[in-house]
Write a structure and sequence with these properties.
Layout (H helix, E strand, L loop, with lengths): L1 H17 L25 H6 L29 E7 L3 E3 L2 E12 L3 H9 L11 E5 L5 E3 L11 H6 L2 E12 L11
Antiparallel strand pairs: 1-3, 1-4, 2-3, 3-6, 4-5
Helix pairs in contact: 1-3
Length: 183
């Protein structure tokens, strides 16, 4: 756990130094994420990045806004929550688009390093979203474009162990077709 925090601190220092170069105008502003206690793949920001919207029948209240960014100083991630589009699910109401929530654990340093260095723009594609969660359940939602960089991301994810994988229904498929909407 200590190594993961050190990797995040190093990555933040590298980003800070990169911002001091002559191309400051080209560098996006690095924000610090809001620490939340409700990491979820059904978060409105996550669903928006996945091109989905939570069905009104599943909402329990107005979604709280999430401030994405890099982990704050001293944040030590224990697990990662990977959110991606899932398979379609069927129940008595019909077919549902779903989101796959995958909890990962292991040496998070490579993942944190890749995710905090990412600077690629996502464009219009659908990209998995990542929460970092500490041992007490506090969590930060990484920048939307953090998972767009394929520079080491697949290898970093493969090194982690899958602890739990769950499919969550998100929205009824209109007309019964299983093609997910595009953003």
């Amino acid at each position: 756990m200590r190594a993961a925090g050190r990797g995040a601190t190093t990555a933040i220092a590298v980003l800070a130094l990169a911002g001091c170069s002559q191309s400051v105008a080209a560098q996006p502003a690095v924000t610090t994420a809001e620490v939340r206690t409700d990491a979820s793949c059904l978060d409105a920001e996550v669903l928006d990045a996945l091109g989905l919207e939570l069905d009104a029948s599943l909402r329990t209240g107005a979604p709280a806004a999430t401030t994405r960014g890099l982990p704050p100083d001293g944040f030590v991630p224990d697990t990662a929550l990977l959110c991606d589009r899932g398979t379609t699910l069927r129940d008595s109401a019909g077919r549902w688009w779903a989101v796959t929530s995958t909890r990962l654990e292991g040496d998070l340093e490579p993942l944190v390093g890749v995710m905090t260095r990412a600077s690629a723009a996502c464009g219009v594609g659908i990209v998995a979203q990542v929460w970092l969660v500490d041992a007490l359940g506090a969590a930060v939602l990484l920048p939307r474009e953090a998972a767009c960089s394929d520079d080491g991301l697949p290898a970093a994810l493969e090194q982690l162990d899958v602890v739990d994988r769950t499919e969550h229904p998100v929205a009824l498929v209109p007309g019964g077709t299983a093609q997910a909407p595009t953003p």
